[in-house]
Amino acid sequence: MPDVNVALLPTERYAIGQPVPRQEDPTLLRGLGRYTDDLNMPGQAYAVVVRSTQAHGILRGIDTEAARAMPGVLAIITGADLRGYGPIKCGAPFKNRDGSAIAVPPRPSLAEGRVRYVGDPIAVVVAETAMQARDAAEAVMPDIDALPAVTGAREAAAPDAPRLFDELPSNIALDFQSGDVEAVAAAFASAAHVARVSLTSNRIVVAPMEPRAAIGSWDEAEGRYTLRVGSQGVFGLRNQMAEILNVPKDKLRVLTGNVGGSFGMKASAYPEYLPILHAARMLGRPVKWTDERSGSFVSDTHGRDHEAEAELALDKDGRFLAIRITALANMGGYLTSAGPLMPTANYIKNTPSMYATKLIEVNTRCVMTNTTPIGAYRGAGRPEGNYIMERLVEAAAAGMGMDTAELRRRNQIPAQQIPFHAASGLDYDSGDFAAVVSLALKSADWDGFAAREAESRARGKLRGRGIGAYLEVTAPPAKEQGGIRFEADGAVTIITGTLDYGQGHWTPFAQVLSAQLGVPFEKIRLLQGDSDELIAGGGTGGSKSIMASGAAIVEASAKVIEKGRAAAAQILEAAEADIEFARGRFTIAGTDRGIDIMELAHATQPDGTRVDLNVTHVFDEAPSAFPNGCHVAEVEVDPETGTVSVVRYTMANDFGVVINPLLVSGQAHGGVVQGIGQALFEHTVYDENGQFLTGSFMDYALPRASDVPSFDIHFHGDPAKTNPLGAKGCGEAGCAGSLPSVMNALNDALRRAGASDVNMPATPEVVWRALNERKAA
């Protein structure tokens, strides 16, 4: 890796490693953010989406006559109007175990011929006002002949299940297999002990604070579309939508302002965007659409929804020999690019975790059902893989009568064996897993648990403790832009293709740039949401932003310094070889003569031309990083009601070089809360007809502040060797550690009471039944 200047004095306020508050917080906390729904275009019309109320059926026709005659109605767009455009594509390049390609049924933006889930978009009504559009949408009458629906992956995989697509032989879109089957079978045959668990990763409603919204517009003179929309990266979304529109990429501009959360959900193109752009061109005026929360529940991609039968083979000393996973994954009514990725490739990459397991076999059937499509949700298969591993470790320890912490220590990859070629096929470049786990256990007062358990018991509560060790594999950073522009008003702008949808990129990116160039922190701006400004951009996802954008900023800074040396040599009348740069100043070696970089950026050279230090640079890419850590949770269970409370939570994480510990802690906190939500609260329910019964916050429980304890967080950073900052990413690690630690703690409490283990979501009813089935037995 290139030499970089990342070390500033620790007393410097904005140095790398300092807990600098987020630059955007004063704006956002005063309600001055600019989200998509805050925007209004001159002369805009309003759109409302008509969605299927049937989970499965033949769409015979759409009666729009009455709706078209209603006041203010400008247009009603149906699937027939969009036939000249392309489908929404799934880019998953997987093959079945027999070598055939994954079955990817085409997905139209508006349904034609058949509807496949409640919420499937059928038409878009455009009117002068939002209320007029809403009234007219209620008058649109789809003629749907209901068909039998199937909502569970296991039921949908049956040979006699109702088929979603007549052109496919079954609902199984992908029958995936990876691993040396014979070697894994031999390892299990020779094993002294085999641990087995049946696990559910329950379906999640993503529910960001900001619902999806979009404004489409058309410039007749330029023959060009503009889409203003919440996203995770405008460059990638521009490319997807241009392909759907069948136009060159330069004929579409995508703009994203503030984004109120996404967690993976807003990364890709959605069906609503095409008809909005089509209507804007047809009407010659902007068209605005904002989803309601009820629509979001059924139209935003959901997360998780996997069932796994997992096995772990161990020798007589408790050494891990092999892992075997047989899974069913619910894909929903259509395939998204992330849907098949999570229970296949990301299982393989993440399940081995920090352990020296020699072999892994993954068998997954990805199944289409009459439910909302599944997409990425914080971690996108990484938490699920770690959850499987840690539940297996607990089962193995119980079966062999071993201490759970000791079994983990026995199988952790020693620091002296790093770099390590893992069973996943990946090479871990850094990490001291034993030290991280020891730090977590010591900080959590693991050995003092007995006294806390006795105190809980005296109050009539059951107490349990659980470990969630994890290692996750970040998405490999794609090509990423690192533009640096010195503005006329004295500001310095970073241009990047990643996009902040709540993480706070501005501040750590500014810390990196300030460290490299010595420019004043308060002068740095961030430009990230305009596709016209980008020549590359991987977007934000997979915990890769600081590795990708940070590396791009480091390399772009080196180019600024190179240009600056040449310019400074001219102005200082010295040889370029004699110009040195340090702490934001170019100087002639051995003298005190020099010029500050900010002064140089606005200087005029002797020939009368203005100095140009601006750089447009694309960072090629770097391998994935391996953030890891150990979370320790303690829970109390009320045996009378089954209510579970997380009462202590400690985590130690290796995120490599931590650019901003304040923001990193916030990311870890958020991920932990979402993991607690999945473990104990969040539960999507469909009835036998495919109707979504948990379609609002009246029926779908999210964790509140009162449901989580204070978090005790520690860092044990072992710098990554695969990117110039030494960073490892942190955005999804909270989920990876919290799912297993909370569920292991709960099941520890239940086992101490003589009850059987439970699965997620461990709602009070589930826990109460487990305790009362014990009594009945």
Structure classification = alpha+beta
Radius of gyration, CA atoms, in whole angstroms? 28 Å
Share of β-strand residues: 15-25%
Enumerate how many helices there are, as a single number: 19
CATH topology of the domain at 443-466 and 627-777: Aldehyde Oxidoreductase, domain 4
CATH class of the domain at 443-466 and 627-777: Alpha Beta
Q: How many strands, which pairing sense, and closed or not: the largest β-sheet?
A: 7 strands, mixed
The CATH architecture name of the domain at 443-466 and 627-777 reads 2-Layer Sandwich
List keywords for this structure.
alpha+beta; 777 residues; Aldehyde Oxidoreductase, domain 4; 28 strands; 7-stranded mixed sheet; 5-stranded mixed sheet
Chain-wise SSE layout:
Elements: H1 25-29, E1 45-51, E2 57-63, H2 65-68, E3 73-78, E4 114-115, E5 121-127, H3 130-139, E6 141-146, H4 153-156, E7 172-178, H5 181-190, E8 193-201, E9 213-219, E10 224-229, H6 234-245, E11 252-255, H7 273-283, E12 287-290, H8 293-299, E13 306-314, E14 320-332, H9 345-350, E15 359-368, H10 382-400, H11 404-411, E16 420-421, E17 427-428, H12 433-443, H13 449-458, E18 462-471, E19 480-486, E20 492-496, H14 506-517, E21 524-527, H15 545-572, E22 579-582, E23 585-588, E24 594-596, H16 597-601, E25 618-619, E26 628-637, E27 644-654, H17 661-680, E28 712-715, H18 733-752, H19 764-776
Parallel strand pairs: 1-12, 10-11, 14-15, 20-21, 27-28
Antiparallel strand pairs: 1-5, 2-4, 2-6, 3-5, 7-15, 8-13, 9-10, 9-12, 13-14, 16-17, 18-26, 19-20, 19-25, 22-23, 23-24, 26-27
